[in-house]
Amino acid sequence: MRVTIYAKSAQFDMTACAGDNLYAIIRRAGGITLDTPCGGRHTCGKCRVTARGGISPAAEAEAKFLTESELRAGVRLACHTLITGDCEVWVGDASPMTIQVEGLRDSQLDLTPAPAPDGTPAKWGVAVDIGTTTVALYLCDLANGVTAATDAFVNPQRAHGADVITRLGYIIDNPGTDETHDGAQTLRGLLLGELNAHITRLCERTGITPGEIGCAALAGNTVMEHIAANRDARGIANTPFTVSTLFGYSLPAAEAGLAVDPAARVYYMPCFAAYVGGDIAAGLVAAGVDTAENTTLFIDVGTNGEMGLGDKSGICLCATAAGPAFEGAHIERGMAGVDGAVNGVWLEGGEIKYNMIGGGEPRGICGSGLIDAVAVMLDLGVLDETGRINNDGEDKFYLNREHDVYISGRDIRELQLAKAAVCGGVLTLLDDAGLTANDVSRVVLAGGFGAHINRRSACRIGLIPPELEDKINVAGNTAGMGAVSYLMSAAARERIDRINGDSTHYLELSCNEFFMDAYIEQMMF
Q: Whole-model pTM?
């Protein structure tokens, strides 16, 4: 049977057998970006395509994600659709995602040119922030202590799930002994293939060759670093959340899989626990938390909310399972930060206003827009403190009816779970330190998502305690900046080693009674 796929002005002619899953066929085609937050597990309703011909009819489980007009137009969910004969499939062009590369870097950090981390002289290095959603690269001129060029791309592992839990599930479900069926090797290959292509592109822009890169620093969450370093990550998926390593070491580039000087050392930032990774170690140094005179709260909001509280005398860290709501997953009209996504909502003269990434017509809503929209709903009184929508009996609040962009009651539940986890973690850190929100001098909101959050909206919905609103500093990509600092500064390396020592401790929240109580309490608006 023939499956013809049209995407990005390209045509893919695939063969299939009766009963083959359309989602698997599209993935097999390669070069096609399909939004699949759940990794094809039939739970997110995002893998929309248009199909006609020999395909299975839409069953009830699929139809609940689609409107009647979409079904009439031939819109289907690829993961639910089976092949019954020759068919044609249209995959919408994927818009480029907004990727945060720049970020705060400690102004007091000595960036005097220093030798490579292994002590040998090197003129060029590459720093990498391996995010679950996006990856940022920095080509560093070590002789002059400057960043020569930057680049970024969407993490290709997203094809197998939007969050680390889904990707761990993919690894566990595909334990094959060869690369074709080995989930871990598939994810690693996707990442390294794209990473090496972008390293080559950076070098071409700068007029050097990849072989001139003599060292590298990688910062990522614990799961991303495990996958990149070819370490077994399966123990992170379930309690007691065991890791095979907490890193803080280097490998030769040939073993690390980076297409640079084979003898170059590739350093993996130290992690603190299964869900507090090397990106946080890098971020703490970039934000100067470890040298602060007064109490600083560091928050990196994403699918996993990682945070730290402390100063130069010590830092306490914790992690909360915020879930993928902030990435637009599990939100009915949710989407990533791409063209057409509503990313800001506000009231003006009593009327609801909004803007979209890239302009044009709205197609959905991303995380920052969701937070704003819920804050507006609270201001208008159409959402009560329990999270119930009071909108003339309708369990939806429309931003644009014509384009079917709305917030549903189910979306509110997802946001409540996410915001309660983050705020509960903050309150638990404060309680553990014997402090209150008033004792915090500065809040560092890190990460690509954090860079787009409206401070007032975040506090209005209870994502961050309202007493901290005026203390929030949006810091951008601190993980990338910390990795750059590691390459350029001997002092930064010493500080990261010190953070990885006895002055930092990890607070496990899964069995913490205070956190459990705070989490339930913070579900309310």
A: 0.85
